[in-house]
Amino acid sequence: MKTKKKNYSSYAILTIFSLYMIFPFVSTTLYAMSTDWSKTILPTDFTFQWFVELIQDPNFNSAVLRSITLTLTTLAVVLVVMVPTVFLVYMYFPKVDSFMKGLVLMPYAIPGVILATGLLRMYSGSSIPMYAVLVGGLFIGSLPFMYQGVRNSLESIQTKSLIEAAEILGANKLTAFIRIILPNIKLGLLITTLLIFSSFFGEFVLTNLLIGGRYETIRIYMLRRMNENGHLASAVMVSYFILLILISLIITYLTSSKRKEKMKRKAKKVTLKNKEDMTITPQ
Amino acid sequence: MSYIAIDNLSLSFGDNKVLKDISLTIEKGELVTLLGPSGCGKSTLLRVFAGLEVFQEGQVFLDGEEISNVPSKNRNVGMVFQSYALFPNMTVYENIAFGLTIKKFSKSEIKQKVIAALQLVNLEDKADFYPDQLSGGQQQRVSLARSLVTEPKVLLLDEPLSALDAKIRKQLQIDIRDLQKKLGITMIFVTHDQEEAMILSDRVFVMSEGNIVQQASPAELYAQPKNNFVASFIGNYNIILADELKQLDRTFSPKSGSNKYAIRSETIHLEPIKGENVLHFQGILKEYTVLGSTIRCYFNAGAINLTVDLLNSEINIGELEGTSELYINKENIIAIDE
Amino acid sequence: MKRKQWNKSILLLIPFFLLSAMFLIVPMILMITSSFTSETTGAFTLENYQEVLTNPFYYQAFLNSGMISIISSVVGLVLAIIVSYAMTNLPEKIQDKLTVYINVAANFAGVPLAFAFIILLGNSGVFRIFFENLDLPLLSNFNLYSWQGLAITYLYFQIPLGILFIYPSLKKIRKEWKEAAFMLGASNWRYWRKVGLPSIMPSIAGTFVIMFANGMGTYETAYALTGSNINLVTIRIAALVSGDIYARPIIGSTLAVIFAIIMILILIVSQMLLKRVRRDLV
Ligand SMILES: Nc1ncnc2c1ncn2[C@@H]1O[C@H](COP(=O)(O)OP(=O)(O)OP(=O)(O)O)[C@@H](O)[C@H]1O
Ligand SMILES: [Mg+2]
Hints:
Chain B is of the alpha+beta class.
């Protein structure tokens, strides 16, 4: 009985918390679906007009396109550079590795504004295009996530002994990496990539400070419209949330399928163990 | 020249000297074990053979060539890890075939060799399973097949059985020994279990703190431990000083120069032993444990504590009270180093 | 291997080090050196620091940022602990799902968050109308665009951030707690005072520091809510380095250097304290 009671209060706390967390989403959604909501508690009408307007706005479409371009470009750089780097550092350069562990705290010591200050100091007025600087800045910003994500994946498959086993069997490092390590960290990499994707897609600070109005990404578009037409801006935000939630759903699905697969195999193993034939008889 | 040789090898991790001036030789077709307590450097020494550790001084030879600077992938050795280290993304078949595909064998050759290896470890029916669908013992057999299929010059095994339960471990010990004899392959086997070392090996290297303290056949090791460390690590030895032995029986005269002696617990008897060469004294039974066919008894003989193993079938332990007469044949009193 | 061979794979690390140098290390060094250069002559000087440290306007910016961050992290931390504790009472499956969405919520900051709060609590926000209709003057003195308003808005992303750090350690403790309490027959309260609290104290303290730093570094939410009207360090720096009218990049750099030094010091000190606490526990 006692635990039951505790569970009720736990559910109560979590319900209140969830309501609190959902409230802003709900209000934004309602706002996006009404034309007038200023004197009443609930909106007075219901419409899809803002979404239609949005899709017809070429500025919106190009903002989405810009965000996607920026995200994919940066993601490509991050993956190509960081996956081999984290692997090599983890395997062969333990000193660099322990140094890179400190990276995790970097975004707190050097938040976006400070990084942007340094980047502007160095590159404003230089011949290097600001777009490249932005990609570089985002690369730096994603280091902690990337490092942790890849490293955790490597650790979870006992990379060190797998590589040693492969080398003893005659494989070189590259072969071992491509044929053994990559296939095994695939799923972990995908999850990390999705997380970074959603954070790049919603990036604002660096983009705004480094390029600003000259390269209107989705968040900058959002901010501009927010000051012009709140309902339309809400429609942008709602579309953006839907995308984020989709990504989260995919991540949950991937994570649980990873676990399920393991469980399934474990279950099979138990039945196998029962009929196991223990002996090896040299013929 | 021996098939495998290590000359004056030293290895440190930073300031921590893990292997201290080690020299050893191993003959072709031998199965040797590296035996010693945790942290004494067994795995490190094994990994030196595999080319997985950097060492500072000394040389390593295999089959007449110095291999000190040959990278792992070109050494043609096999290794079985404690954690199996099977590739999780590959089936049993692919795991075993991996080394052969690297060496660019033709498809049909690979198939033939893999199937032979699977038969060798009795896993033909598991070819298409993934490693995590197998039990620990089966995984270890795959690992064994994977390292044997490339026909390595020497097979290195790092506590390959320590993660398995006792029954499977016993069986695999026998299987490994049979395989080794059948294929005539040279094996270096790491273990911290003295019983395992005794069952398996032609020769045992006992290690302590980065040194090889004794190398001998199992029988020799048991009968003639070189020092205190080996004696207490290998079997149930009573370690006794010369003076103490004199207190027990004044007829005892120390062998030339030795001050420390080892007496195996099963060589102390309750029935009189005939002949001149016998130490005879009294002891009081303090405690005992029934171990199955033997009973381990703890006697006090004056100031000395003695462990004595008696056969369960030969005495009635309940009747043993007060002072008992104890006998040791002097041949069984082994002089050891400090 | 006899000698450690020259490991050629270090060459593959060049892109990483190059990018880090180009976009992190050198810019940071330039930022530091420029904070020591005179705005007019370009010579070495300390006058930027003198100006920043004596001008009450900048001083106030640090104070405001600090205030908002402390309030939002203290309140956020307490709520995060309560919610995390409640979470550990639920079935595993629900716990897993929740953590994913909490992760999303922790990233729900900035422009969308600001706007959602404007709809709810802004000058013609839903809650304001609601309370006005009821004739309750609850919100009449409340201004979303003030630092109190910011603190409440920050709370929204601080709580999930706190949960992300507190929940795992609480979960670990709970498992041990159940076993320990079971074995020792200790009462709940006794257990928490003697074992539970001391062992999660380090992670609570660590979480607090991270939440505080997160609050200090927040820019987007504040900017979206108030433009440049509120005097926060990040807003100040951004206006100084990129504003068109008031741009004074060198003063901006100086502020940024001071900010980074403060944050790094806080992080280092907290890490050291945490290590000590942990050692004391063992
Ligand atoms: N990579 C390493 N870096 C630093 N020290 C190491 C490393 N590997 C091993 N050591 C140290 O070297 C010593 C010997 O280790 P080793 O693994 O050879 O022991 P072992 O005899 O195999 O022990 P066990 O039976 O526990 O496996 C230990 O003190 C260990 O701490
Ligand atoms: Mg070992």
